[in-house]
Amino acid sequence: MIAPVAGVIGWPxxxxxxxxxxxxxxxxxxxxxxxxxxxxxxGEATGFFSNFSTSEYVGANVTVPHKETAFESVDIVExxxxxxxxxxxxxxxxxGRLAGTNTDAAGFLANLDVTIPDWSEQGKTAVVLGxxxxxxxxxxxxLQRGFDPVIIVNRSGERARNLADRFGKRINCVDWPNxxxxxxxxxxxxxxxxxxxxxxxPLMLDISGLRDDAIVTDLVYAPxxxxxxxxxxxxxxxxxxxxxxxxxxxxPGFEKWFGARPEVTRELRDLVITDLAGPP
Length: 280
Ligand code: NDP
Description:
38% of the residues lie in helices and 18% in strands. It is an alpha/beta fold.
């Protein structure tokens, strides 16, 4: 039998930590297989997906800038991808048809569930900073968990309103200058912007108004200890970093391609943290 090979499709793709994660699981589970970066130029993505069933791969993750093209290219779309209009995981079904899902929302929820098991029982008001692809997954995930309202704060008001239009009445859009009064109501604050990431401007946000029982999570994982998380911890608030989401969103794909459900372990987390500390 030929050893199964999966990969991550993106452009550029060399910075992806997915090969490190999946190869760790392949070793842990003693599976004879591989997971490789697959560089696909923007103009070549449609052709790549149409020929996928005859490629050497059993499936793949899809990253920037191909998630929307993957969504348009798959034969079968699971509900999470349908809701988000983007596919980040593809595989061939028993009939050789290309199927796709999106695991970002599930990864976001799993990270919180594992870190603070009762996080979604403590109240249902959330403030989400950002309205890009990651924020879209977060907002949808929070709606699935019954959050109401979900307050979106974004630099581009139009992008925030597009998200609200997509997901309905439980979303409120708020401008940055007014965020303070909404922070007072929130049980959960999520940074889903790229602010605070290495090489990006810092996130300037006064969190003094947050409730004492609020939970703060940041999707940015490079650096792992963002300014937001440091400030929140200094205030005695519970925090959840973004690395767990990256690890948990990888689980469903691995299970589909290699037939075993992998675990997000402390050892894997440490492996990725060490890698993030090295050259990009
Ligand atoms: P997008 O490019 O789709 O969105 C970027 C968001 O950041 C937008 O809301 C944008 O606002 C905002 N933003 C960027 N620069 C500024 C600025 N100077 N001032 C104010 N707002 C700004 O990116 P993604 O949604 O894909 O990713 C967002 C972050 O989440 C990234 O840091 C990414 O690494 C992280 N991420 C982490 C994951 C994980 O597993 N932990 C998974 C996915 C993403 P505007 O709309 O106005 O441009």
